[in-house]
């Protein structure tokens, strides 16, 4: 602790104007100087040992980022596996929406990776603590915001790929052949593409030159930058940064209403409409997270006085929205496939029970020859008692001697994966004559 106190004093001084550095405040240690991001001190002098070394948000960052990384990859893999089992394994063509989901998942992994790198350099700590512990200050803060800048650049491609995957999925699902639906689909497509160019261009060039976004901290802390340059970041104000988010929210709402409107016009029962609507309505959660990002940006994001600490919540909400959008876009594919798998498993289990049940007929001896495709039942030299069980569970005693080959009934209903496939029923009839009685159908 003693070794970093001189650097801490220097870091605090860089946050203060000359008048503030010489004039003590009297508000007590629990409040912060607005606009400078350092704790207020007692009335006598600045006590560097009481500087706020708490406020560590790195555990929350590591926990949430790793969780989102796992959820993101699980959602992408689950969607691809669901389409493989239902479509690709029988030689179907690759759906465009799956390509876009895969690309968006890769982009989210890149964003999370850069935020983990930023956390390694000190994202989640107060700026003065990072500088106090950095022998080459403000190199760590500069590295933090180099990775944050990369995250912001990937925001445009990430959300664009997610929105395009939804649009192509809706196009295939609802067969965009009605005029109003076709117009709405193309309007969303054009809007998303225009938003991509606008948002990505804004995030890249919000500072000029571009690298000034992370090298400006050398000037702020009165340290010579690695490369001599001057720049400006007039577009990094809260009002400017909020504009791409607001336009993205408009697109999110339009994408949410598109399938719900199409479902309302389907000629199906109300119960089925509600079921489909509930699946697609999970996208409302992504809209709420987008709105939460805008509110957090306007109300509680400090990217000026204490940027390494003040932007953490906003960045976590950004990743949460990206992962949530991928999950919401994958659920309409994964959930129906899970139901089909469950139904198929139940049907196979039921068929296995019926097959095991029908094997009770094996008490009748196998024929040693085939006559015109029918089995000849075993010949006996005397009366034998055979016992079998019919489909209703009744027990039948057979007094069988030499039984000629007649007719047996067997039904086979093959299992099909897809609900739209036809089911073929094969029936074979065999008549069994017991003694001299009238032939009985078994």
UniProtKB/TrEMBL annotation:
<feature type="transmembrane region" description="Helical">
    <location>
        <begin position="183"/>
        <end position="205"/>
    </location>
</feature>
<comment type="similarity">
    <text>Belongs to the SAT4 family.</text>
</comment>
<feature type="transmembrane region" description="Helical">
    <location>
        <begin position="241"/>
        <end position="262"/>
    </location>
</feature>
<dbReference type="GO" id="GO:0016020">
    <property type="term" value="C:membrane"/>
</dbReference>
<dbReference type="Pfam" id="PF20684">
    <property type="entry name" value="Fung_rhodopsin"/>
</dbReference>
<feature type="transmembrane region" description="Helical">
    <location>
        <begin position="147"/>
        <end position="171"/>
    </location>
</feature>
<keyword id="KW-1133">Transmembrane helix</keyword>
<keyword id="KW-0812">Transmembrane</keyword>
<feature type="transmembrane region" description="Helical">
    <location>
        <begin position="60"/>
        <end position="82"/>
    </location>
</feature>
<feature type="domain" description="Rhodopsin">
    <location>
        <begin position="88"/>
        <end position="336"/>
    </location>
</feature>
<feature type="transmembrane region" description="Helical">
    <location>
        <begin position="274"/>
        <end position="292"/>
    </location>
</feature>
<feature type="transmembrane region" description="Helical">
    <location>
        <begin position="94"/>
        <end position="117"/>
    </location>
</feature>
<dbReference type="InterPro" id="IPR052337">
    <property type="entry name" value="SAT4-like"/>
</dbReference>
<feature type="compositionally biased region" description="Polar residues">
    <location>
        <begin position="15"/>
        <end position="25"/>
    </location>
</feature>
<feature type="transmembrane region" description="Helical">
    <location>
        <begin position="312"/>
        <end position="339"/>
    </location>
</feature>
<keyword id="KW-0472">Membrane</keyword>
<dbReference type="InterPro" id="IPR049326">
    <property type="entry name" value="Rhodopsin_dom_fungi"/>
</dbReference>
<protein>
    <recommendedName>
        <fullName>Rhodopsin domain-containing protein</fullName>
    </recommendedName>
</protein>
<feature type="region of interest" description="Disordered">
    <location>
        <begin position="15"/>
        <end position="34"/>
    </location>
</feature>
């Amino acid at each position: 602790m003693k070794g970093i106190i001189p650097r801490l004093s220097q870091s605090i001084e860089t946050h203060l104007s000359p008048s503030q550095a010489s004039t003590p405040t009297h508000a007590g240690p629990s409040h912060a100087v607005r606009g400078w991001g350092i704790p207020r001190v007692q009335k006598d002098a600045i006590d560097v040992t009481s500087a706020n070394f708490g406020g560590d948000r790195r555990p929350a960052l590591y926990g949430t980022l790793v969780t989102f990384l796992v959820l993101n990859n699980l959602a992408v893999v689950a969607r691809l596996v669901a389409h493989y089992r239902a479509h690709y394994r029988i030689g179907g063509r690759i759906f465009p929406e799956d390509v876009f989901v895969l690309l968006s998942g890769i982009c989210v992994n890149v964003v999370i990776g850069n935020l983990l790198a930023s956390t390694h350099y000190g994202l989640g700590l107060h700026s003065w603590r990072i500088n106090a512990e950095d022998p080459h200050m403000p190199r760590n803060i500069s590295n933090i915001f180099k990775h944050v800048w990369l995250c912001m650049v990937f925001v445009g491609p990430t959300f664009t790929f997610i929105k395009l995957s939804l649009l192509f999925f809706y196009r295939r699902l609802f067969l965009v052949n009605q005029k109003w639906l076709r117009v709405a689909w193309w309007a969303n497509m054009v809007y998303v593409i225009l938003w991509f160019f606008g948002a990505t261009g804004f995030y890249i060039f919000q500072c000029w030159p571009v690298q000034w976004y992370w090298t400006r901290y050398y000037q702020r802390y009165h340290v010579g930058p690695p490369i001599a340059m001057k720049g400006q970041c007039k577009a990094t104000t809260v009002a400017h940064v909020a504009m791409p988010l607001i336009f993205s929210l408009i697109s999110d709402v339009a994408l949410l209403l598109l399938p719900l409107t199409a479902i309302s016009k389907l000629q199906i029962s109300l119960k089925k409409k509600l079921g489909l609507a509930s699946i697609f309505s999970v996208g409302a959660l992504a809209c709420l997270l987008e709105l939460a990002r805008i509110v957090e940006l306007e109300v509680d994001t400090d990217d000026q006085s204490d940027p390494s600490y003040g932007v953490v919540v906003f960045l976590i909400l950004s990743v949460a929205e990206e992962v949530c959008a991928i999950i919401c876009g994958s659920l309409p594919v994964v959930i129906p496939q899970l139901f089909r798998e469950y139904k198929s498993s139940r049907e196979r289990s039921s068929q296995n029970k019926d097959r095991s049940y029908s094997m009770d007929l094996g008490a009748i001896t196998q024929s040693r020859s085939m006559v015109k495709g029918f089995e000849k039942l075993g010949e006996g030299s005397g009366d034998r008692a055979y016992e079998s069980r019919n489909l209703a569970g009744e027990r039948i005693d057979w007094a069988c001697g030499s039984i000629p080959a007649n007719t047996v009934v067997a039904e086979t209903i093959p299992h099909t994966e897809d609900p739209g496939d036809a089911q073929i029923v094969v029936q074979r009839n065999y008549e069994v004559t017991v003694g001299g009685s009238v032939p009985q159908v078994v």
